[in-house]
Write a structure and sequence with these properties.
Layout: H1 4-12, H2 18-33, E1 45-54, E2 61-66, E3 72-73, E4 75-78, H3 85-97, E5 102-104, E6 111-117, E7 126-137, E8 149-155, H4 167-179
Parallel strand pairs: 1-7
Antiparallel strand pairs: 1-2, 1-4, 2-3, 2-8, 5-7, 6-7
Helix pairs in contact: 1-2
Length: 190
């Protein structure tokens, strides 16, 4: 079954808090109930892949100011039929940032979140079942802003709380600091 790899990843994932637990349970049920969960054409919702993209020294994260949603978010997008959500997350991170040298720090799921996407044009409101991975730049950190974004920015952890981010983005920041506590220390170059 093409959903088994994702279900295995989800069932191994340990949620960080109760909100993530609820998203995880909801996502597992959704994947089990919908053979076409990776297809954008599934109007109720679909699987998306996302990347929490760290700088080479893991002290900054690259966020996008998403054009359609007008929010600062992690890089990511639609699976469009691809059941390899890690490959989706890497592809979307590369496409949205223009950075080629990006590798996963783990093949395990970093975070999961289910959230509503408002209606836009002829696309009705639906849900994104977002599977997120921790990834890192290996080469140049110079990015290019794509058509999907108003802007991109490398940000340090202390800059994120003032940006009125979605709680799930702040949760990923907390997870990042658990894994890389040195990122919380001010940089002499900042």
């Amino acid at each position: 079954m093409h959903r088994n790899d994702l279900l295995n990843k989800l069932e191994r994932h340990g949620p960080f808090d109760e909100a993530e637990r609820e998203s995880l349970d909801r996502m597992i049920a959704f994947v089990k109930q919908n053979a076409d969960c990776f297809e954008r054409s599934l109007q109720a919702g679909h699987i998306t892949g996302a990347a929490w993209l760290l700088s080479r020294d893991a002290s900054r994260v690259l966020l996008t100011h998403h054009r359609k949603l007008d929010l600062w978010l992690q890089l990511g997008g639609h699976a469009d039929g691809d059941p390899d959500v890690l490959a989706v997350a890497l592809r979307e991170a590369r496409e949205e940032s223009g950075i080629d040298g990006i590798v996963p720090l783990s093949t395990d799921t970093f975070d999961v979140d289910v959230h509503a996407i408002p209606a836009h044009g002829n696309v009705p409101e639906h849900f994104h079942y977002d599977v997120r991975f921790l990834v890192q730049v290996t080469e140049s950190e110079t990015y290019r802003v794509s058509d999907e974004s108003h802007d991109l920015a490398w940000l340090r952890p202390h800059e994120l709380p003032d940006m009125k981010l979605d709680e799930s983005v702040l949760r990923m920041c907390r997870k990042w600091l658990v894994r890389f506590p040195a990122a919380a220390k001010p940089s002499v170059n900042a």
